[in-house]
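CO-FOLDING WORKSHEET

Operator: S.A.
Ligand of interest: orotic acid
Run index: 213
Mode: holo prediction, single chain
Checklist:
[x] sequence pasted
[x] SMILES validated
[ ] output reviewed
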Amino acid sequence: MHAYQRDFLDLALRRDALRFGEFTLKSGRISPYFFNAGRFDSGADLAALGSAYAASVLASDIGFDMLFGPAYKGIPLAAATAVTLATKYDRNVPVAYNRKEAKAHGEGGMLIGAPLAGRVLIVDDVITAGTAIRESLALIHAHGATPCGVLIALDREERGQSTLSAAQEVSAEFSIPVLAIARLTELLTLTQNNPTLALHHARLAEYRQQYGV
Ligand SMILES: O=P(O)(O)OC[C@H]1O[C@H](OP(=O)(O)OP(=O)(O)O)[C@H](O)[C@@H]1O
Ligand SMILES: O=C(O)c1cc(=O)[nH]c(=O)[nH]1
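OUTPUT RECEIVED:
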């Protein structure tokens, strides 16, 4: 495990953004753990996340013109990443978000922020079965823009529509990279090696047997 992955998982555990128990997921799967990016709820937390996301994408060879943060939790993550890119790396990129329900008054519509154009990098919190990312990809295509990659904090490494993981499927089907700061693999390593988390390890491993790749 890399130091930046441990730092991210440690922060998530300290903030209770990573919890163990029984959680129903968007896919209907019942999971023994849950990543709630909404717990990164201070300026300092968002700055730390923005730095981790920005560093990950800049260390990759993904070329991008703008960021897109899917509602809801992708919104502050894309914003934090855009702020870091501008303030730390002198790279001012446009940023856009969507609404879950269309707005019928004022400016109206589903999209907020910069028009979707050029190479769009999706910034979200987590990928499970890939539904949210596929919706974002469809939205970007529908606006005539080009998705160029997906940047997430946690890849749960779960099966999508085939025997591949959702991240692998999206990557192969759309010919784009899916970059994650950490994966279930690192979480399993952490829970195995940390005495206070060891009791969760078996349930995570069992869940991986059921839904993982
Ligand atoms: O890969 P998937 O199976 O689609 O699951 C992952 C998605 O589920 C959550 O979104 P959700 O819309 O539930 O919640 P949010 O409004 O809190 O972002 C999460 O933020 C991911 O976007
Ligand atoms: O699959 C989901 O719905 C999901 C999983 C997870 O760990 N965190 C989250 O916000 N959603």
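REVIEW:
The radius of gyration is 17 Å.
The chain has one domain: 3-211.
[x] output reviewed
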